[in-house]
Design brief:
Structural class: alpha/beta
Strand content: 15-25%
Number of strands: 22
CATH topology of the largest domain: Aldehyde Dehydrogenase, Chain A, domain 1
Strand order of the largest sheet: 15-17-18-13-12-19-20
Helix content: 25-40%
CATH superfamily of the largest domain: Aldehyde Dehydrogenase, Chain A, domain 1
Shape: globular
CATH class of the largest domain: Alpha Beta
Bound molecules: NADP nicotinamide-adenine-dinucleotide phosphate, magnesium ion
Length: 483
């Protein structure tokens, strides 16, 4: 069965309704530049209605459900997601400009989050604590209440799955504000929730503009926790806004993640990850491997291998499922072009670029993947998050040099290390200032089960895995004196 929701409506209290502003936002297919759909421009009044519905769900049917029952509904949502795999993948491919295979992987990941958190619901609980004679003490793990979820455009399905899935598993009621540039699959989740039997109000979806719907959500005093994924600039504002009413805020922000290749690495194994880790989703990935640090002895060999791969990279319409689709927007395309012209002005060594498929439409937001060599670790292209398919190679001398360069940005999201030396693997894992370290792989295939998040400018709090369930809940201690 195909989806029947009207993209111009918003999803509140288990039902579709018109937005109160009467205004709309245009969604564009970045592969063509053509309009894809109109979506409601959610207002502060819509957010308020969503928060009221969420609180009513907590006070009603949703709050009354047992962990086992919540788990069944979430698992059902995952199951339904998979029955729509082709339709959701095509929707996401058109909305985000993501090649179809990558979009399909996102659908599967979203289903996995609902399966994982559905299964986790009844496996997380408080403790009983040995205490003074005459006391019984135990802890309860309770939901925060209403949770706000602010989502970026680059991986809507994955990020909604990990954030909303974990929040619902702990019994929170969610208000979701997807990105204005890509929100169709977020809306589809409303239809999936109804089909799965999620009680009305447990999940509410209000698309709109960040400074309107997003800001209204973070400022709403009826919201008890915010999960934000996006840029550092907006994340800072979100944390300040949450601080005004003293609520916890999880920030999943940007990155400038390295893959570090030592001269004893298995290069055949590493090579595809070095490139794919940087160009997946056209580089619009928070954990993109935008810096490749290579020990000098194998530098030329790594350059040759990466250059050969870059020359084979094809850029085209997301539906044609090549290596890269377009950028999300013309605006993002301009940002990346800006970095390419900085590289030119500063005389950076351009090693290779991919190529465009024939006959790409003028309106598409395409950019060629570009590899730069021998870049100084302090250069802007090695320090700033570009959020496009641009990688820089940085040579290093030894382990200490690699650690220093890897840690020398404001970010700290993930890092990859390629070495066969066991001691070095352990030392590097300890010394890298990041939230995830991958040894002899990169990304661990998305790892739904693996806690994820940053340190330093990449944010704080953890999503994914069991650990997210702690973030989406609060401990209450009960001390009973019975003599
Ligand atoms: P963004 O501009 O910060 O937007 C993220 C979300 O925040 C969008 O829904 C946006 O709405 C909303 N927003 C904007 N202004 C707001 C405000 N004043 N109050 C509340 N919400 C507001 O980020 P983006 O450009 O979509 O995404 C790219 C960034 O996200 C990159 O820096 C990337 O590294 C980071 N990211 C991090 C992770 C991670 O897990 N660490 C994952 C993906 C992306 P609009 O769409 O209407 O602007
Ligand atoms: Mg779009």
């Amino acid at each position: 069965m195909s989806f029947t929701f009207d993209s111009k409506q918003i999803f509140i209290d288990g039902a579709w309704r018109d937005g109160l502003s009467g205004k709309f936002v245009e969604l564009v297919d970045p592969s063509t530049g053509e309009m894809l759909a109109l979506v409601a421009r959610g207002s502060a009044a819509d957010i308020d209605a969503a928060v009221v519905a969420a609180q009513a769900a907590l006070d009603g049917d949703w709050g009354a459900m047992t962990a086992v029952e919540r788990g069944r509904v979430l698992a059902k949502m995952g199951e339904i997601v998979l029955t729509h795999i082709d339709e959701l993948a095509e929707m996401e491919a058109k909305d985000v400009g993501k090649p179809l295979t990558q979009a399909r992987n996102d659908v599967i990941a979203m289903a996995r989050y609902f399966e994982f958190y559905g299964g986790a619901c009844d496996k997380i609980h408080g403790d009983s604590i040995p205490f003074m004679d005459g006391f019984t003490v135990y802890t309860l793990r309770e939901p925060h209440g209403v949770t706000g979820h602010i989502i970026p455009w680059n991986y809507p399905m994955q990020i909604i799955g990990r954030s909303v899935g974990a929040a619902l598993a702990m019994g929170n009621a969610a208000v979701l504000k997807p990105a204005e540039e890509a929100c169709l699959t977020a809306l589809a989740l409303g239809e999936i929730a109804v089909e799965a039997g999620l009680p009305a109000g447990a999940l509410n979806i209000v698309p709109g503009i960040g400074s309107e719907a997003g800001a209204a959500l973070t400022a709403h005093t009826g919201v008890h926790h915010i999960s934000f994924t996006g840029s550092n600039a907006v994340g800072t504002m979100v944390q300040q806004s949450g601080g005004e009413h003293v609520i916890p805020v999880t920030l999943e922000l940007g990155g400038k993640s390295p893959q570090i290749v030592f001269d004893d690495a298995d290069l055949d194994a590493a090579m595809p990850f070095l490139v794919n880790g940087g160009i997946q989703n056209a580089g619009q990935t928070c954990s993109a491997a935008s810096r490749i640090l290579v020990q000098r002895g194998i530098y030329d060999e790594v350059v040759a291998g990466m250059v050969a791969q870059y020359k084979a990279l094809k850029v085209g319409n997301a539906l044609d499922d090549l290596n890269l689709g377009p950028m999300i927007s013309k605006r993002q395309q301009e940002i990346v072009k800006g970095y390419l012209s900085i590289a030119k002005t500063d005389g950076l060594q351009m090693l290779a670029q991919g190529s465009y498929a024939d006959g790409l439409p003028e309106g598409g937001a395409y950019i060629l993947p570009t590899l730069f060599g021998d870049v100084s670790p302090e250069h802007r292209l090695a320090q700033e998050e570009i959020f496009g398919p641009v990688q820089v190679l940085i040579p290093f001398d030894d382990e200490a040099d690699a650690v220093r360069i890897a840690n020398c940005t404001d970010f700290g999201l993930v890092a990859g290390v390629w070495t066969e030396n066991g001691g070095r693997q352990l030392r590097m894992a300890k010394k890298l200032q990041v939230g995830q370290v991958f040894i002899n792989n990169y990304g661990a295939a998305g790892g739904v089960e693996l806690p994820f998040g940053g340190v330093k400018g990449s944010g704080h709090g953890r999503e994914k895995g069991f650990e997210a369930l702690y973030g989406f809940s609060v401990t209450k201690t009960v001390a009973i004196k019975h003599g």
